[in-house]
Amino acid sequence: FGGVCLLAGVLILLQNGGSLAFDSFTWGIGSEYLGAYLIFLAFIINAAVPPLGAWLADAYPEASVTGAVFLTAFTTKSAIYVLIRGFPGVEVLIWLGAIMAVYGGIFSVLENDIRRLLAYHIISQVGYMVCGVGMGVFGTAAGEMAINGSAAHAFCHILYKAVLFMGMGAIIEVTGRSKLTELGGIYKYMPITFWLYMIGAFSISGFPLFNGFVSKTMIVTASGMWNYAFIWLMLEGASIGTFLHTGLKLPWGAWFARKEPVCEAREPPKNMLAAMGITAFLCTLLGVYPKILYDILPYPVHYEPYAAGHVVAMSQLLLFTFVAFWLLRGMLHGTPTISLDTDWFYRIPGKWIIRFCEGPLMAFANYIDRNVMKMAGFFVWVSKNPFAALRIKGREVRLKVEKPVATSERAAEYERDLEEVKKRQPAEEPMVRLNIGTAMLLVLLFIALYLIAMLIHGWLIR
Length: 462
Description:
Blueprint: H1 2-15, H2 34-46, H3 54-59, H4 65-86, H5 92-110, H6 114-134, H7 141-175, H8 191-205, H9 211-225, H10 229-255, H11 270-288, H12 291-294, H13 308-328, H14 344-383, H15 386-402, H16 408-423, H17 436-460
């Protein structure tokens, strides 16, 4: 659907005199912006903006252990790139992004599947980026800060989300289990995997000295520069949810939570640990020395992430989140339930449509098919000997007409005659041959009927 919207939008722009050059789209209200609307819709579907983002939480957990890592790196980040190129400063993105950030955190509370939980936090983190694009008005200090923050957070997200998915993929690889209700107590078997995972968890949560801190806080700061108090509050609240579930609930439920291990486990193969180690190192490097990241951003960066106010505020937020989790950890374990996302609203009518297609529509199609085949069979039957076929059908019709008005004995005789007539085949009758003159007369008759029909049709449509 997203691809169709994108193609339709491009064609409409070309029809209206636009070009294929990928520049910032003109945005406004009116039918003349239909092409831009359709392209925008395609981009936000790819970015998994609710209520059009249920595909992400369905798709990522079904991928292979390796495939899921590549999905986290490319799919939604390509959407952020094209939104930055095509729709910077579009205000509706501010609210869509802030809602995404909170929405992903809320659905993470409900999740039992370890990779679905991480998938919902992708939606949450991409929400920060979308919000930053919406605040990215050209020519303003706050806009440049927001665009830099979105680009930086997209880059950092590729790294820390890869570590997180590799950590959960390692658990699936060695245990064959993917539900929090089926895990716990395996820390003693997989301590290296746990600590590498936690570097990704610290990064996504925005801990100081990790890359998420130096990118996420740029977007939050931009919302403050624009004086969007409610947006700032939503983004800060989403940070609490991120640490609560990705940094605390998920590792607690997967590695601890039970006194005795639920199954045998071991460290994953060395190549998997090496991949996690390299990516975790990069998460730490960019957090300790953010200049490497800031030098490749679209605009010059005038931002000090390690200002005392930033560090103290984030540390307080994370500390109180940890205290709340520890006190309530017994209530935050996984439950064997299935979360209903926004796709519920179109899956219900979808079931009705499927039932209609499998029931009444298929019955109608079978009825049409039977009658068309019966008609085709009749024409084949007639074509074997047309004149003999007409005589047989004429006899059959006469017997059917006479049968209701005949006496019972005569009706029985008509019934027997009718059955005998139905058994007769035109091919068994002697073939009647027409001379050339009669054949030409029939051809001319058919042509005359065709011309009369065409004249009547032309007269009716005037």
